[in-house]
Amino acid sequence: MQKLSLICFAMLMLGLSWGATAEEKRYISDSLITYVHSGPGSQYRIIGSLNAGDEVTLLDVNHDENYGQIRDSKGRIVWLPLDQLSPLPSLRVKLPELEQKVSSLTEQLHNIDESWNQRTAEMQQKVASSDDIIDELKHENEVLQHQLVVAQKKVNAVNQQQDDKQRAVILQWFMYGGGVAGSGLMLGLLLPHLIPSRKQKNRWMN
């Protein structure tokens, strides 16, 4: 009973190993050409060749001879050394993909470069516009400062004229007041002499 269990276990493991090796994708290594045989060994007849990078399907493995049974893209079932199989695509298969990636990255860099140049041009244009605005504001400031200086001079001239007029009015009033005072003084000096003489004349006539 124990032997039967071991036999069943061994058959199960064999089936699992068979299922694990069946229908596995493999790629011919980067050799220029690989010859395939009708059986698991170099003593079997060569029945064709495969190119480097060809995709094949691994069907079985002969560990004693280190050969693998594969099915190629033409549907042929042949044998070849396991060391000529690779689980990864060869460089010949990867090359177009790598070229596509390089082309895509180059295009992205080109787009980034164009975008950067456009942004740089826009920034330069904005800076140039800002410089023009600054120059205009400086010119307007200079004009306003000149106008302010002219206005201040005009105000000073008007103030000077106003001061001259005020001094002239004051001088006129001073002269007028002096004339009035002088006239009053003279009248005050003459009036006493005029009035007594009239009294004496009237008195003498009486």
Automatic annotation (TrEMBL):
UniProt entry tagged with the keyword Transmembrane: yes
Domain SH3b: 22-89
Coiled-coil residue spans: 88-161
SMART domains, sorted: SH3b (SM00287)
UniProt keywords, alphabetically: Coiled coil, Membrane, Signal, Transmembrane, Transmembrane helix
Lipid bilayer topology: Single-pass membrane protein
Signal sequence, start to end: 1-22
Compartments, as annotated in UniProt: Membrane
Protein name according to UniProt: SH3b domain-containing protein
